[in-house]
Amino acid sequence: MKNIKLSLLFLLAFLSYGCNSILDKTPLDEIGDDAFWADPILVDYYVNNLYSIIYLDTRLEQENRTDNSVSAQRDKFRASTYLFNYNLVSATDPNDNIWNDHYEKIRKCNRFLERIGESSIEEDEKNVLTGQVHFLRAMFYFDLVKRYGGVVLLDKVLTMEDNWKIPRSSEKESYDFIIADLNKAIELLPNTWSGKDKGRATKGAALALKSRAELYDKRYADAIKSCEAVRQLDYELIPGTTPEDYRSIWWITNKDNKEIIFDLQFKSPDVYNNMMVFNLVCYINNPYGDRGWGGIGPTQDLVDEFELKDGTPAPAFSQKDNGEVFDVNTSKIYENREPRFYANIVFHGSEIFFKGDKGPVTVDHYLMDTPDKGDASQTGYNVWKWIDYDNYNYPYAGASGKDHSTNWIMIRYAEVILNEAEARVETNDIQGALKAVNEIRARVGLPAYTETNQEKLRQLIRKERRLELAFEDHRFYDVRRWRIGAQTQGKLHGLKFVSPTEFTVETVDTRSWDDRLYLHPIPYEEIIRVSAIKQNTGYNGYYIF
Asked: I need a labelling partner for 237 at 20 to 30 A (CA). Which of 74, 76, 451, 496 fits?
């Protein structure tokens, strides 16, 4: 019995020791939380990961929800992907999962901001990382606000002990939050990065994004100040008096040009910009065959907006009767256009170049746009912007070999100037607005605007913004903040080549509009989960179609 008692005492002592010293130890195959936040390399990796999750996949594709383009993917994606165009989007089928996706990203930002203060890494490094996270959180929140209006504002990681029934803040409060984040980023970020750090957020990126947010929230005087601050930094417009000069903004060999303020860096073969492949001219002609997915088909309505190089309006073929036959040569539809037309649009007769032995290819839409080519253009046009054909290696950009992938430019200097032009016209600073918008026109050799009527100048600036920033994820949200949805979402037009030299004008899409489409619906599942969150107007529960 004595031996049994001794054995039990030994076992209890062992178990007691084990609970305190063995079972409570940090697993050897994991990094403890405190150790993680004390390691500058790991913390840097954490911030790098936040860049990698910036929303990109449908930024270019979103152009198909505007009057700038029509999906080349025909009916097979209309019902699921482009519900907005046909007023079919609902809270139960919201068209994307940006709400949940972005709150996951915001949680990661909040986790960083909670823990970085306790970190033992150098203060200077801590500050510059913190500035980047404030910039990224602002960007994630901005993506939400421009879609949904006022959103749920979180500046901490919620725990089980917290109240999760948090209502949406107002749109103004949401922009206050975004701008506060950007002010913090401006305070902490450097002007430039070099070497492997290229592509990180800078003071200029934070100021430029702030000018965009202020413009969206109609804080025009503040937007002007932010734009003026960007002007004090080392950015400039790339010369663009020829299509090649203007196109070089997106050239692989010109990735770090001075017009770029913030971009997502892509380098093959490890990572490449899938948007480049998405937009490649599809089904050119033999022997080249299928070169891409042909996702974007610019409309004739957009093409008509590009002026002739002397500044006079181009012929408005989108207004012609459907079925009327025109000769491509005698109509001079593509002659003497300003440089941005040729830099943005691949048209019937465009000559594009490929590296190696592929040589020049003349685009022939008569051969391309046949019923069996499911991803061929519906409009008779393809997008050139974003695609560096001069440095393109068939079959796919980024598939192997050298770095030949274009970066996704999220903010460039031209936008800042247009932000300033719009803000100045809204404050009735006509001369200041003219000076700014004419910088954009002078860059491509167009004559200066002289219009002094505020409303007429407003429309000219909006037109300039549409052309300069086409296919860069601006038009969709510009239409919404300007409240011009009904003017843009009607009949859209393209060309159909009925012979190698003849075309007709066709209505390629007819869209419907409802004012509820100015905002996305909050996902129905989120409304059910958090009763304090109220739905946007027009999305009451289920919509069954």
From this structure: 451
> Residues near 310 by Cβ (< 8 Å), separated by ≥ 6?
336, 447
Cα gap 197→123, rounded to integer Å? 18
Query: For the range 390-393, what are the long-range contacts, defined as Cβ-Cβ under 8 Å and sequence gap of 24 or more?
Result: 390/251, 390/353, 390/355, 391/251, 391/252, 391/253, 391/355, 392/354, 392/355, 393/354, 393/355, 393/356
Nearest to 204 by CA among 193, 194, 219, 214: 193
Give the least confident one: 238-247, 276-285, 408-417, 495-504: 276-285
CA atoms of 252 and 280, how far apart (whole Å): 15
Give the distance between the most distant pair of CA atoms in the chain. 114
- Tell me the C-alpha distance between 496 and 43, whole Å: 55
pLDDT at 452: 98
pTM over the 0.85 mark: yes
Determine phi and psi for 292, rounding to 5 degrees: 175, -165
Rounded to 5 degrees, φ, ψ at 362 are -95, 120
Crossing angle of helices 454-468 and 430-443, rounded to 10°: 30
* 262 closest CA partner among 384, 412, 149: 412
Q: Which amino acid is at 350?
A: S
> What's the pLDDT score for residue 52?
86
Please write the tens of the pLDDT for every residue from 486-529.
Answer: 999 999 999 999 999 999 999 999 999 999 999 999 998 899 88
